[in-house]
Write a structure and sequence with these properties.
single chain, 25% strand, 2 domains, 6-stranded mixed sheet
Length: 334
């Protein structure tokens, strides 16, 4: 066994002459993941190890998709660690664990905008809430949960060290109660544009107050805010749609409730939804086949399973689709 000379728990300062290392306890990627923030003559350098694996235009990514015991990663701890790092002023240099995994060499000098832009704000009434900044504007995916969503978003922005701002647009992944429970209040407070599936425009107009701007997802790219490809889905929910967003070197998929990371509860809910109509299983299986053509780096569903949503490795995406496909076949009309 290895002898440990000094046990670190975080917030210690180790000094060597005029160089100071601040110890940052950042568990999640592994149980003992630790970052070191070096300070010398006004310069701050972050040695991140695998907490930040590599640098891209959006270097932090999100958090571990592997659950214990594999690598002993823990999604919730990883998220908390990244939130803590994002609250720091951007270091002068960020030195990641695997810089050679970049397809092209990347500068370790980051802007504040590169340091923090894509956020998982946590769950609100059982649904994940995501937000991101692009073109100096703030965007939210779905409006779940009913009253209080607007205050929840502002509170979480403050917790992340951000100046609270109202969303420019709300991207709906479907038009049902689970996706729109907080929409009316959020739109009244923010006057945000609402983006939805072409088949859902009329339904969303009826949910919002007169004067609300509701646009089809087909027109989203024309706004020029960010690189996005809408992907109409089917088989579950009202007018479901996914958004494939190019985020630096990564492809991010906001997919709502199709597909799902399946545990017993989410499996039962999916079975119930698919058996509600004879057409649902057929449309759902067609959607799963369509999604199999994607290779997202980050998957951000509306309902994370066991705290799991984000980075996809190895066969993770294929496994998720195969599990959903099996449920779909179980519900086909006999």
């Amino acid at each position: 066994p290895t002898t440990v000379d000094v046990m670190l728990s975080g917030d210690e300062v180790i000094s060597f002459g005029d160089v100071r290392f601040r110890v940052l306890d950042t568990p999640g990627h592994t149980l003992g993941s630790t970052c070191y923030l070096m300070e010398r003559r006004g310069r701050r350098v972050l040695f991140s190890g695998d907490v930040i694996v590599r640098l891209g235009e959006k270097p932090l990514g999100t958090y571990s998709a592997y659950l214990p015991p594999r690598y002993r990663g823990d999604a919730r701890s990883y998220l908390a660690s990244l939130q803590m790092l994002r609250r720091l002023p951007v270091p002068d240099l960020v030195l990641p664990g695997h810089p050679r995994s970049n397809s092209m060499p990347r500068s370790p000098r980051l802007t504040q905008a590169q340091w923090e832009e894509l956020y998982y704000f946590g769950d609100f009434h059982g649904a994940a809430v995501y937000g991101f900044f692009a073109d100096s504007k703030f965007f939210v995916v779905d409006a779940p949960g009913g009253s209080g969503l607007a205050d929840f978003l502002k509170s979480r922005q403050r917790e992340f060290g951000l100046t609270p701002v109202e969303p420019t647009a709300i991207l709906l992944t479907a038009c049902g109660e689970k996706e729109t429970g907080g929409l009316s209040e959020l739109v009244e407070r923010s006057h945000a544009i609402v983006v939805t599936s072409p088949d859902g425009v009329d339904a969303v107009q009826q949910l919002c107050s007169p004067g609300t701007t509701v646009i089809s997802a087909d027109d989203l790219a024309q706004r020029g805010w960010f690189s996005v490809t809408p992907l109409p889905l089917g088989g579950r929910g009202l007018a479901p749609i996914a958004y494939v967003v190019r985020w630096g070197e990564k492809t991010v998929l906001f997919s709502g409730r199709i597909p799902m990371g399946l545990d017993q509860t989410s499996r039962d809910e999916l079975l119930s939804d698919l058996t509600a109509s004879k057409e649902n299983p057929i449309a759902f299986l067609a959607t799963i086949r369509k999604l199999s053509g994607l290779r997202p780096d980050l998957w951000l569903p509306a309902a994370p399973s066991n705290g799991q949503n984000a980075n996809l490795y190895d066969r993770a995406w294929n496994d998720i689709l195969e599990q959903n496909s099996r449920v779909g076949y179980q519900t086909l009309p006999r």
